[in-house]
Amino acid sequence: MVNPNGEWRWDCIQHLLPQAALLTVAAIKPSFTDIMVDYVGWRGEEHRNFTVKSTYVICSNRLGNLLTNGERNRRHLTNDSSCSIYGAALEEVSHVLRGCVESRSLWPRLVKDDKLNKFLRMEVKQCLGANARWTVPPRHWIKVNTDGARNTNSGLATCGGMWRDFKDKWCFGFSRALGLCSALEVKLWESGIFFAVGLMDMKQRCWDVQFLFIRREGNFPADTMTRFTRQGTSDYLRFMESQVDV
User: What is the pTM of this model?
Assistant: First the structure.
């Protein structure tokens, strides 16, 4: 896409992009091919590295562009804006996610009973951030959630975790400042502290131990525990009473 003189090869790209995009490209000085080569990057971050956080921001901002029949009708792609499953007059985002009988039957399995009505009355964007729930482990089991957090600007990191039993009873919690860490080092610290504070005790008691990956939305109690210590300190806090509402 760049000629030997370090200029854009407009003959290769001008027929592929709209005028607004071409003007944006024109403002960017291309690199010489002998200095560096093109590479695939994630546009959600300036450093072009993929992150879950930037993905969530992008998806949240585009929520209104979900191609419902109502949106398709607005774009003149169809004359029918109704729900094709249960015949609602207007199929819009709120209907697809909560109003339709099919989707409405799903939420009681994901949201606690005492919070369900409030959840269903929220704005769509607001409710999507509140629909995660922590679930109790099987009978006679204890669940341990751990998580780490790292400031991408400063590199300072913390980790934390909690133990709860099958009756939702708080057993133990911790939060520790880690100093300057990479994302990988944060995960190693997070796992290492878990081993140090509990696994040996479990083995001595002849307990069964299972390791499971929990998605970020369901691991929010551990994420909250990472915030009790101050980044850049040597704090290590232990909590014998519950600090998180799950």
Answer: 0.46
